[in-house]
Structure formats: structure tokens, C-alpha cells
Amino acid sequence: MSWLIKVPSSTSNLGAGFDSIGLALNLYLELQVTRADEWEFIPASDCLESIPKGKDNLVYEIAEKVANQYGGERELPPCQVVMKSDIPLARGLGSSATAIIAGIELADALLDLDLSEDEKLQIATEIEGHPDNVAPSLLGGCVIGHYDGKVSYTQIPVKGVTFVAVIPNFELKTKDARAVLPKEFSYKESVQASSVANVSVAAICQGNWKLLGEMMNKDYFHQPYRKSLISHYDELHEYLTRNSYGVFLSGAGPTMIAVVDDKNVFNIVKQWKYEYPDYQWLSLQVENTGVYIEEQQEIQPQE
């Protein structure tokens, strides 16, 4: 028996939706899982070459955690796991969240745990600390979530717009991006910040991307602080805003994303690539269906 596990990447925050709003995108972490004599993780993409090859792999560590919590006395049967990914690492596109979801799905499949979506999301959020990346990678679409020991969320399908990712050639670790954030806000600042986030959510629900773009520019929570870590932020933000609904810092950065109407995206991105050839440009669609699992029968050789 073997399994295919395919987990979409994600972008989060969307400006003011700090740690609470995320979108699934059509970049994927893919696992081909086959029973074996011992655990082995095989990288099949260049960006994964440095991953741990044994039980110190993050996917296994998550799977083991789930097995210990839900599997009773059963142990995970050893497998060979071939891993492919087209998600840039440490760029604010949810690469670690995909590994968490993959580990949960791996344990669920190997031990027939039959976990519900809500149970999987609860486990993932407890591990990650917030739902903004793990929720869309699991469920698909845009997910707006709250976590205070229990996850509450709503899911919204998204269509009609392309999310154009502008990816620089350097990494930005989440812990470094969190270190520059303020430890507290005044009451007045909190009201302002939350009101921007509230309008942002309403704009997403209505598909009012122009309004969402305006709210992205008014974020109080993280972009004003994190942009100091990204030397090109102000220049690119001003340039991209001219021909898009709005621009936001994806997750902790350093990737920036412009929201562009589907009808105009080809010509716009062609010009952007010409003007800024040193960046990687990805025109991404929202993945509205979330994680994909397929159980496969192994083909026995004919005698």
C-alpha cells in the first residue's frame, strides 16, 4: 500500500490579518509514501536537498506526535517518503505549515485514525501557535481563524484574482521577523489596528479587492516594522501598487505579493519581470480544495 499526500502552500496576514487570515496557493509539498523496512525521507526537489533523511525529519516528528496522542499503543509503520516541493523555503509562503499538515495526514493514513478536519486543524494550530498558514493548507481557500486554545474559523472561496509573488534571493527567518514587532499597543492604536482588520475581512467576504488593498496599506500590526528588514520594500511597494489592487508582505516576508485582476495579469507581470529581472516572479492562484490524499494500490510484478 502507498499514499500520495499533496499539501498546498499558503500566504498569510494579507496586511492587517496578522496571525489570523491565510490563503492557500497552488504551490505544493508532495509526499509519495510507501511501506519500507525503515524510515527514509528522500528529497526529490533541489530546495529540499538539505532536509533530514531519517526520523529527525519534521514530517516524521509531527506524525509521531499525532500517533502518540491518537494512536494508542500503535507505532507508525516504517515508510520510504519521497518529498517534492516547489515552495521556496523561508520566504513567507508557509513551507513549514505544509510539513505540519503532511505529518498529520501521514499519521492519519498509516494508523487509520479517521481524524476529522476540525481535529486535524486543532492539532496543527496547537503545533504552529496560530491558524493562518496551517488552516488554508488543510482546508483550502481563504481561512479566517482565531485561536485561544480552541480554533474557531470561517472559510471563504476566492476567485477572479491572481496573487503575484515577488520573491527575493534571500531568506528571512520568522523568529527574526517577530523580534522587530512591538510588544504592546496603546488602546487607541489597538482600536485603529482592529478596525482596519475588520474592514479587511469584510472586503474579502465581498470580493472587494480594491478596498482590501486600501486596508493593506493601513496595517498597524506588522508591515510597518518588518519592512525595515527588506531593503527593497518601499520601492517595490510603490511600483507594484500602480497596477494592482494592493500589495502585502507575505507572512513574515521577505516575499511580497500583489493582488491583480485575472484579466490583466499576463501583460502586467511581463512588464514587472522586465523592470525587475533579479527577482523570482510567480503568478499564483488560490487553491480552494486544500490538502489532497490518495491511497494507491501497489502494482505487483507479473511472474
UniProtKB/TrEMBL annotation:
BP terms from Gene Ontology: threonine biosynthetic process
Residues in GHMP kinase C-terminal domain copies: 201-277
Gene Ontology CC terms, in alphabetical order: cytoplasm
Main localization, broad class: cytoplasm
Positions contributing to ATP binding: 88-98
Compartments (UniProt record): Cytoplasm
Pfam families noted in UniProt: GHMP_kinases_C (PF08544), GHMP_kinases_N (PF00288)
Ranges annotated as spanning the membrane: none
Function of the protein: Catalyzes the ATP-dependent phosphorylation of L-homoserine to L-homoserine phosphate.
Homology family: Belongs to the GHMP kinase family. Homoserine kinase subfamily.
Protein name per Swiss-Prot or TrEMBL: Homoserine kinase
Gene that encodes the chain: thrB
